[in-house]
């Protein structure tokens, strides 16, 4: 699975090869094409090459290019209405940069290239079918699906979601042995004594705002969270990478505990629901916003099942929160962390998933949501420092 690029070009049909070559635009092996384009075709350093000279360049070096790649570049030249091509656009195309000029070239090239959609390709190996399935599950545009299908190498693998899941399960099993209880562990009198749980009396210990994800209320809580984050998080990480998905997950976790410290000030927090709900809500919002473009099978059923599972888990959390506590006067863990994760998912998460392989720092909406998130974090910090004393709350005693 990790070495599938040669297999894709060699074994798949000409339709996929045409589209993938057109969309990837690999770096030229020859070193003399780009320098020649600068010196011979733009002697005045205007930054532009006339379409006529551009076509001459392609004809002169066409033998060094894949025929499908040459066809797309010619389509770009033919469809350019102003008679000139930005040299930097040409450099971006040849250096495999996904810029706006790249997208324009692909869209124009696809009008000229007659190819089947990726879903219609036959004779694919098991790994190729898996990657194609992931592409259709997470990406709304055919261009991005083909790009992802052709370029994915499983290196690195989706390690973040797998690693975080293994650690969560390991901590749960350890606590199960220590407490001699695996169902509703949270009702055990010694449960809150764990140094990973967020407790309002110990909110000054900053690590608890993050480490609470390694403690779960019981096997029913852990099982649903693990199932959801693997089924949704792993495919998302395969497409968007560990950095983006890890950011959404951790941002949801921190927002969850901070939301509890603001809205449910006397309750502790356990579980990874903040991060899980951030991923799921971002994914579902992306599907709904791109409904016509999403070609995943049974998408309506999948959305309904995901919403039912989330509602069930959220309902369990609400019931547990208001169930008589096993260690009064401290209540059971709060459900507000779920809502904090949802808010992160439909803001930061949607922007990240929508801009596949695009530079987030170039997206104004990204910076707006980052600014809002930072403001919320700063507000929650000041709230934790001053509001508890000003409101004269009676907090439960430390565990």
From TrEMBL:
InterPro entries: EF-hand-dom_pair (IPR011992), EF_Hand_1_Ca_BS (IPR018247), EF_hand_dom (IPR002048), Peptidase_S54_rhomboid_dom (IPR022764), Peptidase_S54_rhomboid_met (IPR017213), Rhomboid-like_sf (IPR035952), Rhomboid_IM_Serine_Proteases (IPR051739). Residues 10-20 have a biased composition (Low complexity). PROSITE patterns: EF_HAND_1 (PS00018), EF_HAND_2 (PS50222). GO terms for cellular component: membrane. It comes from the Eukaryota. Residues 65-100 form the EF-hand domain. Its EC number is 3.4.21.105. GO terms for biological process: proteolysis. Gene3D superfamilies: EF-hand, Rhomboid-like. Residues 1-24 are annotated as: Disordered. The active site is at residues 273, 338. Keywords: Calcium, Hydrolase, Membrane, Metal-binding, Protease, Serine protease, Transmembrane, Transmembrane helix. The chain crosses the membrane at residues 159-179, 245-263, 269-288, 300-322, 334-353, 365-391. Its main location: membrane. SUPFAM superfamilies: EF-hand (SSF47473), Rhomboid-like (SSF144091). It is a multi-pass membrane protein. It is found in: Membrane. GO terms for molecular function: calcium ion binding; serine-type endopeptidase activity. It is an enzyme of class 3 (hydrolase). It catalyses: Cleaves type-1 transmembrane domains using a catalytic dyad composed of serine and histidine that are contributed by different transmembrane domains. Pfam families: EF-hand_7 (PF13499), Rhomboid (PF01694). Belongs to the peptidase S54 family. May be involved in regulated intramembrane proteolysis and the subsequent release of functional polypeptides from their membrane anchors. This is Rhomboid-related protein 3. The lineage of its organism: Eukaryota, Metazoa, Chordata, Craniata, Vertebrata.
């Amino acid at each position: 699975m990790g070495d599938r690029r040669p297999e894709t070009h060699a074994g798949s049909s000409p339709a996929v090869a045409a589209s993938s070559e057109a969309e990837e635009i690999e770096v030229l092996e020859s070193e003399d094409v780009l320098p020649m384009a600068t010196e011979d075709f733009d002697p005045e350093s205007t930054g532009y090459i006339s379409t006529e000279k551009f076509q001459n360049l392609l004809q002169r070096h066409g033998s060094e290019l894949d025929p499908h790649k040459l066809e797309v570049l010619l389509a770009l030249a033919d469809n350019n209405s102003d008679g000139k091509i930005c040299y930097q656009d040409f450099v971006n195309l040849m250096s495999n940069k996904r810029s706006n000029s790249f997208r324009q070239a692909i869209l124009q090239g696809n009008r000229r290239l007659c190819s089947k959609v990726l879903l219609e390709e036959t004779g694919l190996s098991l790994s190729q079918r898996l990657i194609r399935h992931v592409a259709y599950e997470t990406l709304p545009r055919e261009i991005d699906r083909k790009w992802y299908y052709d370029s994915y190498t499983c290196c690195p693998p989706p390690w973040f979601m797998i690693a975080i899941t293994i650690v969560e399960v390991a901590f749960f099993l350890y606590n199960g042995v220590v407490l001699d209880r695996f169902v509703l562990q949270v009702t055990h009198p010694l449960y809150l004594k764990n140094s990973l749980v967020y407790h309002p009396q110990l909110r000054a210990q900053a690590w608890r705002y993050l480490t609470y994800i390694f403690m779960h209320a019981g096997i029913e809580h852990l099982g649903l969270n693990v199932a959801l984050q693997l089924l949704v998080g792993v495919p998302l990480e395969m497409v968007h990478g560990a950095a983006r998905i890890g950011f959404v997950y951790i941002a949801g976790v921190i927002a969850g505990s901070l939301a509890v410290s603001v809205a449910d000030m006397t309750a502790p927090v356990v579980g990874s629901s903040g991060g899980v709900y951030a991923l799921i809500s971002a994914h579902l919002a992306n599907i709904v916003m791109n409904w016509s473009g999403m070609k995943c099978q049974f998408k309506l059923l999948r959305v309904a099942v995901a919403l039912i599972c989330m509602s069930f888990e959220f309902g369990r959390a609400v019931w547990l929160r208001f169930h008589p506590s096993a260690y009064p006067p401290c209540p059971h863990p709060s459900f507000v962390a779920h809502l904090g994760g949802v808010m992160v998912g439909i803001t930061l998460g949607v922007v990240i998933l929508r801009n596949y392989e695009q530079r987030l720092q170039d997206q104004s909406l990204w910076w707006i949501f980052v600014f809002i998130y930072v403001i919320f974090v700063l507000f929650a910090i000041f709230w934790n420092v001053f509001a508890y004393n000003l409101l004269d709350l009676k907090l439960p005693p430390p565990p």
